[in-house]
Amino acid sequence: MSAPSRTGSAARVRGNDLPLRGLIALALVIDAGVHIHVAPGYQAGSSAGIGQGTLFLLEAAAAILAALYVLLRGSRAAYSVALLVALSAFAAVVLYRYVDIPAFGPFPAMYDPTWFFEKSLSAVAEAAGAVLAGIGFIRAGRTVRADGTRAPRPTA
C-alpha cells in the first residue's frame, strides 16, 4: 500500500470547494455585470483625469478575472484575489455613498448619496463575495489527512 499523494489530497480539497468557488465567482460576475451596465451613465468626469465610468469598467474587468481565477484555481492566492477585489469594491461603494470625497489626482469626485437597485445589488454581491472568499481562504489553509478529512493547520 502506497502513501497518498499530496496532489490527490489537494485536488480533493479543491473539488469539495467547487460550490463555494462557484458562489464567489457568481458574486463577482454580478458585481462586474452591474458595473458594466451602469458605466456609460457615469462616464462624465474630469477631462484631465479618469472618468468614473472608466473606473467602473476597470473594476468589472478585475472582478471577471478574479472570478475566473477562483473558479479555475481555488488556491489561497485565488481566494485572496477574490477577497481583495470584492472587499475593495464594497468599501468603495459604501464610502462614496456616505462620504463626499473631492476629486484627487486623476480620480473624479464620486459621491452618490442614493441607493438604487443596481447599486444595492452590486453592494450585496460584493459583500457576499468578500465573506465567501474569506471563508475559502481560511478553508484552503487547512490540510487533508489520508482518509480525506480535514486537519487543522499546523502551527509553526
Describe it.
This protein has 156 residues and is mainly α. Helices cover 64% and strands 3% of the residues. The protein contains five helices and two strands, in the order H-H-H-H-H-E-E. The protein has helices spanning 6-16, 18-38, 52-72, 76-98, 117-140; strands at residues 143-144, 150-151. The protein has a two-stranded antiparallel sheet. Helix 2 (18-38) runs antiparallel to helix 3 and helix 4 runs antiparallel to helix 5. The two termini are 30 Å apart. Residues 3-13 have low confidence and may be disordered.
Instruction: Say what oligomer this is.
Output: single chain
Termini separation: 30 Å
Major sheet characteristics? 2 strands, antiparallel
* Rounded radius of gyration (Å): 19 Å
Proportion of beta-strand residues: under 5%
Identify the overall geometry: elongated
Element order: H for helix, E for strand:
HHHHHEE
Helix share, percent: 55-70%
Low-confidence runs of at least 5 consecutive residues: 3-13
Helical segment count: 5
Mean pLDDT: 85
Class by helix and strand content? Answer: mainly alpha
Lateral arrangement of strands in the main beta sheet: 1-2
Per DSSP E runs of 2 or more residues, the count of β-strands stands at 2
